[in-house]
Structure formats: C-alpha cells, structure tokens
C-alpha cells in the first residue's frame, strides 16, 4: 500500500434526523467532513454526521415498503414468469 493516500478511518456517530433521535456508532472515513461532535454513551466525544434515512426510517426495514406500479409492469412481469 502506498503511504499517505488513504483517508482517515475512525469512529463516527450517525444520527437519523427524521426519527426520534436514532443514533449509532460505527467507523467511517466521513469523520473529517463532520462539522459537529456529540458525547456518546461511553463518555467519549465523536464526530456527528446527520443522515435522512437509516434502518429506523427506511420503508424496507420498517415494513412500510409498497410497490407503486402505475403502468402494470409488475403484473406483466409476474404473468410472464409465472410457473
């Protein structure tokens, strides 16, 4: 590996702004672009990155996933490949 070409990889807190404060701690290279910090449960301070969609609000994970099909493509597909 070449030296000094890789971004810094460190712990970061991601916060879902559309939920009731859902946060999770993980590692990311986005730490350098974070403008805010937050005190985590372990007492340490980490960079904070705000996101709009996470597993707490994504329709697939919350069970609110719906297929919107205005031109009948889903039915046409199911009819064509039905066994």
Automatic annotation (TrEMBL):
GO cellular component terms, alphabetically, are: ribonucleoprotein complex; ribosome
GO molecular function terms listed in the Swiss-Prot or TrEMBL record: structural constituent of ribosome
Q: Which Pfam families match?
A: Ribosomal_L31
BP-aspect Gene Ontology terms: translation
Q: Which UniProt keywords apply?
A: Ribonucleoprotein, Ribosomal protein
Domain of life assignment? Bacteria
Give the quaternary structure: Part of the 50S ribosomal subunit.
Q: Which family does it belong to?
A: Belongs to the bacterial ribosomal protein bL31 family. Type A subfamily.
Name of the molecule in the record: 50S ribosomal protein L31
Q: Tell me what organism the protein belongs to.
A: Luteimonas terrae
């Amino acid at each position: 590996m070449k030296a000094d070409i890789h971004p810094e990889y460190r712990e970061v807190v991601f916060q879902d702004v559309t939920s009731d404060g859902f946060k999770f701690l993980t590692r990311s290279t986005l730490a350098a672009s974070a403008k805010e910090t937050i005190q985590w449960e372990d007492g340490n301070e980490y960079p904070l990155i705000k996101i709009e969609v996470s597993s707490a609000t994504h329709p697939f994970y919350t069970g609110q996933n719906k297929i919107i099909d205005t031109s009948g493509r889903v039915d046409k597909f199911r009819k064509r490949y039905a066994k």
